[in-house]
Amino acid sequence: MPKWGKSKKQPPEGWELIEPTIEELDMKLREAEQESHDGKRRCESLWPIYRIHHQKSRYIYDLYYKRKAISQELYDYCLKENIADRNLIAKWKKNGYENLCCLACVQTRDTQHGTTCICRVPRSQLPEGHVVECVTCGCRGCGGN
């Protein structure tokens, strides 16, 4: 059952416009959860889930902040029903975090040296030919150029 089906409150006007995309992303998420983990590292099995979660939140963020295509009421409904990640969107609104892949990459308490993830380092500051790959979400660099 989709997450938004749990609420007894009727979805606001405009929901029918975004519902097919949200349902498609939810189906992709279910497929990613059921996908075989054979031959993958433990962290690699979660990467598709992080990507789809990011994609869903970015879709709602773009519709509301960039394109102004959905109402405040529909945006609040999506956040309340956990269709989009409220905390990730809050980070995207801050300067320097516009392309953030996941919240785990900026949490310093989860790293060995008390710093952010390697994917947050701008590519211009890395040695030439250095391949960046986040262990947590599989991001290949959300820190900029």
From TrEMBL:
Annotated Pfam families: BUD31 (PF01125)
Organism encoding this protein: Monosiga brevicollis
Primary location group: nucleus
Database matches in InterPro entries: BUD31
Taxonomic lineage of the native organism: Eukaryota, Choanoflagellata, Craspedida, Salpingoecidae, Monosiga
Family, similarity comment: Belongs to the BUD31 (G10) family.
One annotated Gene Ontology cellular component of this protein: spliceosomal complex
Protein name, UniProt field: Protein BUD31 homolog
One GO term of the biological process aspect: mRNA splicing, via spliceosome
Localization annotation: Nucleus
Keywords (A to Z) from UniProt: Nucleus
Keyword Repressor: no
